[in-house]
Amino acid sequence: MKINRLHLAVLAAMLGSAALAGCKKKEEPAPLPPAAETTPAPAPAPAAMPATTSVNSVDLGNAVGADMRVTAPMTSFTPKDTIIAAVSTGTSDPAASVAGKLGAKWTHVDSNQTVHEESKDITFAGDNVTDFQISKPDGWPTGKYKVEISLDGNVVQTREFEVK
Predict the structure, then answer these.
(1) Is residue 62 included in any domain, yes or no?
(2) Domain of life of the organism in this record (predicted)?
(3) How large a percentage of the chain has pLDDT more than 70?
């Protein structure tokens, strides 16, 4: 009987081991470390836009002051007048210098004839005034005229006037 008891003891030990192994909890995977707080990378600074030039105004007259501005704006002239277009320009960045071409095309509207055309290479910096002039010693024909001001080849302002 000793053998049976020994067998039973071994059998009980084996069954107990098997039961314990079967009841054993499955191990949970180790928790992940907490996600590191991330701060979004700062957005790259916008690329600096190059400075631009614009024509702010065009005044017509027959005389300019020391500042190159028309002293008395006019839209009607006599045949013997010198006609001046004072073109006021500005740059988007007053500290920057911008090279460009400013032009004036004078036209006798009644005959659709170009009277004079001129352009100037200019280095714009901040606010400036550039003048264009036309004169005719023997006198302008009466009628309607216009001057087209262009910046880098593009017409940006037009002024109409009359010679009486």
Answers:
(1) yes
(2) Bacteria
(3) 71
